[in-house]
Write a structure and sequence with these properties.
There is one protein chain. By secondary structure, the protein is mostly helical. It contains three helices and no strands. Keywords: Calcium, Calcium transport, Ion transport, Membrane, Mitochondrion, Mitochondrion inner membrane, Transit peptide, Transmembrane, Transmembrane helix, Transport. Component of the uniplex complex. Interacts (via the transmembrane region) with MCU (via the first transmembrane region); the interaction is direct. InterPro entries: MCU_reg. It is a single-pass membrane protein. This is Essential MCU regulator, mitochondrial.
């Protein structure tokens, strides 16, 4: 029932699985041999901070553009024509 190919593949799978477990479960051995670098530094709440800064910047920029457009229109520096609505 077990052909030589199945036995070969099973033995290779078991060998790879054993090496994988040895490398990734024993973190001290991995770091001592420099096979895998330690986990990189992560910034806590990185996505939330990014969304907050991006959203805040877009809001402030929109408000500045709105007030600049009102200033230009009040001082008649730039007044859009009624015919340019196309």
């Amino acid at each position: 029932m077990n052909s030589p190919l199945v036995l070969l593949l099973r033995s290779r799978y078991m060998a790879v699985k054993a090496v994988h477990e040895a490398l990734f479960n024993a973190k001290t051995a991995v770091h001592a041999n420099k096979l895998v670098e330690p986990e990189p530094f992560r910034i806590p709440f990185g996505i939330a901070k990014l969304a907050l800064v991006t959203g805040g910047s877009m809001y402030i920029g929109g408000m500045a553009a709105k007030h600049a457009a009102l200033f230009l229109e009040e001082n008649e520096i730039f007044v859009p024509d009624e015919e340019d609505d196309d």
